[in-house]
Amino acid sequence: MTGSKILLESGTNEVELLELYLDEGSGDSYKRWSFGLNVAKVKKIVREADLKNFSGHKKEGSVSRVSSSIDTKSPLVLGMFEFMGTVIPLIDLSGWLRMEPVSKDRRMVLVTEFNEVVSAFLVSGVNRIHRVSWSELESLQGNMAKYAEGTIIGTVKLTDPDRILQVLDLEQAMEDLNPDRDKAALEEVEESVECVYQAICADDSRSMRNLVKNSLERGGFEVDAYPNGLEIWKALQEISAKVSKTGLHVSEFVQLIVSDIEMPGMDGHALTKRIKEDPNLRDLTVYLFSSLITEELLHKGDAVGANRQYSKPQIATLVKQARVDLDDIYKCKG
């Protein structure tokens, strides 16, 4: 986000979260809900009243192009507006979260960009930026996990005042607004049944985790999938122990790791750093696959030893390159 000057070192397992809030109800039933969003996904924060050329419909010829891969007829799309010469959708965040509509007083709009899509979300307001460790982000458990699956990836406890920050899974929101997206992305993956490799992937977003797993399987991989970096690290520690016990090379157990960057417990940078520092695991091919691959994040990925880095629309390219890279390493062709 413009104006953010906090720099995070590679592999420190930290993230900057913008705290936003939704006000629900009034009087005795009033409740303020706090949510978190990675600052790197936020392009700009504007007042709803300051939106340029806001309309429920695109005005032909008024702007250069439309930046949207979502169903603009969805009731969750409140309208369209112009942002930097592009028409983008304004999405009702409270509606997607199945909450009551927020009050119309002094509402704010978060313009976001991730997965190479620019869109905007209507909120009651924003508070501040919090620098936290991914280890502080607790995965949802029990009934909360069932209720919030697909909307919240985890929670962070804040103080002064005490409150719970619910970290949003906006990738799932975009999937819900464009249900054919993942099907189309999967069909772009070249199908193969030859020379099966073993892969492990991790992503906290349910929709993205399924897409990565299904795409790799279509490309000729056997895949184990995990919801966060901590879980995949536990699995890799077991493999490391097997390597030590048997004397076999790690490639006898797994050849490829595909990891998201933003995840509860341990992020992709910290995970990659640990893999490359483990003498039993360091030969593994590690790809980082994220909705956010900026120049800064590319540098961070390189610093921790990632073999390749891709933004999430590039799943077909990732699978194809993985086969090329592993064929080259293990000479398993044809």
TrEMBL record:
PROSITE patterns: CHEW, RESPONSE_REGULATORY. Transmembrane segments: none annotated. Keywords: Phosphoprotein. GO terms for biological process: chemotaxis; phosphorelay signal transduction system. Residues 198-327 form the Response regulatory domain. It comes from Maridesulfovibrio salexigens (strain ATCC 14822 / DSM 2638 / NCIMB 8403 / VKM B-1763). This is Response regulator receiver modulated CheW protein. PANTHER family: CHEMOTAXIS PROTEIN CHEV (PTHR47233). The modification 4-aspartylphosphate is found at residue 260.
